[in-house]
Design a protein that fits this description.
Layout: H1 5-14, H2 30-42, H3 52-67, H4 81-87
Amino acid sequence: MYISGAYQQLLAQTGLVASMSRKGNCYDSAVVESFFSTLKNELIHEREYHSRDEAHVEIFEFIEVFYNRQRLHRTLDYVSPVQFEATRVP
């Protein structure tokens, strides 16, 4: 799917660049794998969702309210992503 001509053409038309792991290189997706591990361990494994809407709301709140604005990130020198971006020099 991700390497299909139609998909690649759509990406090119919208100015997007595909990000795919190189064969046999697990480190290419380390950041997103780490994020999904955090999401599962800090939220999803502790919950039982009764609907997609319920899951959507909680996951959205986790990402937009907690993860991006409150959770301290070791790789960002123990500040939130929002705080980190606010202190970056353009």
